[in-house]
Each structure stands twice: as structure tokens, then as C-alpha cells.
Specification:
The structure is a single chain. The protein has a single domain, classed as Metal-dependent hydrolases (TIM Barrel, Alpha-Beta Barrel), CATH 3.20.20.140. The longest helix has 21 residues. The chain starts with a strand and ends in a 5-residue tail after the last helix. It is globular, with a radius of gyration of 19 Å. It has 330 residues and is α/β, with parallel strands linked by helices. The protein contains 12 helices and 13 strands.
Length: 330
């Protein structure tokens, strides 16, 4: 069994929320000249292929690459955290219903993660409860920051408390990268900003005491944890030499949390993966490909196979760890 925990999907037909709500740059999909264009307001944000919104090509490519199950989540630009809370709830419900419907069509091939309007924690908790209890989703995808606020902010603690109580897994994906406007050239927001943004999320949750206060919370981070595994030495050293700046909300050394959260396998390099195994450990790495986008792994699990880790370890990375994170395996 091969489970890919990091895949994205969007509906083939989406409302034009800019017209409905009268503001913002909500994404909608327009089909033009045999192309599907994600429109951000009146500008083309991204052109997507059919495998992003149609089941037939997705299932065919899963079969061609030996992927048993995809864990589906929305595209981060669709989080809409910047929107008015009620409007954010409406768009979240739309995407969640679509993912749940997709899973219902192929329940042996798909699992779904929801999205919630974290600009309003109360509404986010309500929609999380609907996702878990009604739509039978094992978890949610959330952004690495919420309108610039770190995930360590105390305002989000009731959300983590509810997620822990519900047994709702969280998948943290980078978005709205730090300094994005200053480094637009060379695709640097995606090449440099995303790894840094994910490390920001992990460090915020560690230093802010999220893992300490909610030890049963199951959290996975995209892209191999970004730059965090490769800078844990610097992070730990900073904690030791400047506790007055770093250890202000949590006195536990950051290295103590290694092995307490999951990451996906998407690092693209054997040397990086070897370090990831050493830092994060074979129990907490799950296959993740970022399907169907270009920065993903074309054949999910190819890098893991190249590492020649043995069948026992491969089973953990290909499926067992994912099932534990998703709460499907005790």
C-alpha cells in the first residue's frame, strides 16, 4: 500500500465569489481554449491540467505510479483567510463538500482533509466539527500563518484543543510566504520562501508551547518540514544562548520535540532525505508528492525507493506512518 498524504484538488466548477461578495481576489476557475485557468480576481493566477480537477486522469496516473490512496487537500491559495469570516466559512464549506463528494465516489482510493476559516476561531472549530463528524474527514489542512500571525498565537489554542479532542489531524502547508513581495524574481517565494515558511510554522508551534500544551495533537508539515530539519542545530543553539529571546513561552529545548510531529518526504535529494531520516526519524516521515504540481515528485515514492531502506522501513514511510498520523492506525 502506498498512501500519498500531500495532494491537491479543486472543483471543476466554482462560483465567482468576487461578483457575489463584491470584494477581494477570490479564486474561480475559467475554462478557456482547452485550458483551465485559476483566476485571481480578473487575472490568471495559474493554468491547471485536468488531473487537478477531474477524477479520470487522476485515477489513471495513480494507477500508473502505483499510488493506492491519495489524501486530498485544497490548494493553499483557496484558504481565503483574508476574507470576511462568514464569506470564508462559505468558501470553506464549498471546498470541503467537494472533497467529501470526491472521496465518496472512490472511498478506497481517496481520503480527504478539510479547510476552515481560521480568521475566526469559533467558526473554524464549528466547521472542523462538521468535517470530522459529518463528512468523516480524518483531518484538516491549515496554512503556515494566518494573515501574518504565527500559529503560536494564544487565540488559536482553542482550535488546537478542539482538534486534539476530536482526534483531528492537521497538515500544515506553507502559504503567503515571508518577504514574498521582495523576492518575486526567479520563483524565489516557492524555492526559498516555502521552506523558510514551514520552518517558521514548526518553530512557532514549538516555542509557543503548542506541542507542550496539546501533546496528543497530530501535526504533519509539508515539504519535509522545510528548512527546519537542516537548521535545528542553529535553532537549538539560539534557544541555549538567548533564552531571554527564544524561551519566553516554553522552557523545553526544541530538540525534545523531534519525533513528536510528522513531515512528508518531499525533499528531492538523497542527501537531504538521509538527514531527514536522522533528524525526524523513520516513524514520522510519510510519503508526500505535492501532486499534481510541477514542484512535486513525478513518481511518488521514487526517492524513498532509491534510498534502499529495506521493506520494513519502506512500509512505514509508504503507509504505516500516514495511517498513524491520520488516526487510522493505533
Amino acid at each position: 500500500m502506498i498512501i500519498d498524504i500531500h495532494t491537491h484538488i479543486l472543483p471543476e466548477k466554482m462560483p465567482n465569489w468576487v461578483q457575489k461578495f463584491g470584494y477581494g481576489e477570490f479564486i474561480h476557475l475559467e475554462h478557456r481554449d482547452c485550458q483551465a485557468c485559476m483566476m485571481k480576481g480578473d487575472k490568471v493566477f495559474r493554468v491547471v491540467e485536468e488531473n487537478c480537477y477531474k477524477l479520470e486522469p487522476r485515477l489513471r496516473e495513480m494507477d500508473e505510479t502505483d499510488v493506492t490512496i491519495q489524501v486530498l487537500s485544497t490548494i493553499p491559495v483557496l484558504f481565503n483567510y483574508w476574507a470576511k469570516p462568514g464569506d470564508g466559512l462559505e468558501t470553506s464549506r464549498f471546498f470541503n463538500d467537494h472533497i467529501a463528494e470526491t472521496v465518496s465516489k472512490e472511498p478506497k482510493r481517496f481520503m480527504g482533509l478539510g479547510t476552515v476559516p481560521l480568521q475566526d476561531v469559533s467558526l473554524a472549530i464549528t466547521e472542523m466539527e462538521r468535517c470530522v463528524k459529518e463528512l468523516k474527514m480524518p483531518g484538516l489542512e491549515i496554512g503556515s500563518n494566518i494573515n501574518g500571525e504565527n500559529l503560536s498565537e494564544k487565540k488559536f489554542f482553542p482550535f488546537y484543543e478542539a482538534a486534539e479532542k476530536l482526534g483531528c489531524a492537521l497538515f500544515v502547508h506553507p502559504w503567503e510566504m515571508m518577504g514574498e513581495k521582495q523576492v518575486e524574481k526567479y520563483w524565489l517565494p516557492w524555492l526559498v520562501g516555502m521552506p523558510a515558511e514551514t520552518s517558521r510554522a514548526i518553530c512557532s508551534m514549538i516555542f509557543g508551547g503548542v506541542f507542550e500544551h496539546f501533546p496528543k495533537l497530530r501535526v504533519a508539515f509539508a515539504h519535509g518540514g522545510g528548512s527546519f530539519p537542516f537548521t535545528i542545530g542553529r535553532i537549538g543553539h539560539g534557544f541555549e544562548v538567548r533564552p531571554d529571546l527564544v524561551a519566553i513561552d516554553n522552557k523545553v529545548h526544541p530538540s525534545e520535540y523531534l519525533g513528536k510531529f510528522w513531515v512528508d518526504s518531499l525533499v528531492h535529494d538523497k542527501r537531504a532525505f538521509a538527514l531527514l531520516m536522522d533528524v525526524i526519524g523513520e516513524e514520522k516521515i510519510c510519503l508526500g508528492s505535492d501532486y499534481p504540481f510541477l514542484l512535486g515528485e513525478e513518481k511518488p515514492g521514487k526517492l524513498i525507493s532509491r534510498m534502499k531502506l529495506g521493506k520494513k522501513v519502506e512500509k512505514k514511510l509508504f503507509s504505516k506512518n500516514a495511517l498513524k498520523w491520520l488516526g487510522r492506525l493505533v
